[in-house]
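User: Hi! I'm working on a homework problem where we have to compare a predicted structure to a textbook description. Could you give me the structure for the chain below?
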Amino acid sequence: MDTSYPREDYLPAPSHKREPSPTVLAVGASPTPRDHLVWSIFNTIYMNFCCLGFVALAFSVKARDRKVAGDVEAARRFSSKARCYNTLATAGSVVLPLLLAALLITGVIHLSKLAQESVGFFTYQFSGSDDEDK
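Assistant: Happy to help. Predicted structure tokens:
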């Protein structure tokens, strides 16, 4: 009796290699639209100028929902609106404090010049003599 292993009759059948399937790339197909969700969350939490960040977040979520549903055109429209609101929120949150700081600085400079010009008015000394009463 032959007890050597492996026996040829019990060897696994050789696997048939599958040929790789060809990869098809659609040339000219537009990429899926971006939903700008991270930017919207950032604007909502940190720089919520006139609630534009929240509006941008709503449009970002709508864009993501439409993209998942397969409606690419609606996703592109919502994505465009989200990008516009994010741009407005970011610009407003950056420009408005800079503008207010510039106005504050120019106001302080103007008041300091005004105070220096009118220092004679505030330093009028009353004389201790009673020349007017006599």
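For your comparison, note the following. The chain has a mean pLDDT of 82. DSSP finds four helices and no strands in the chain. Good luck with the assignment!
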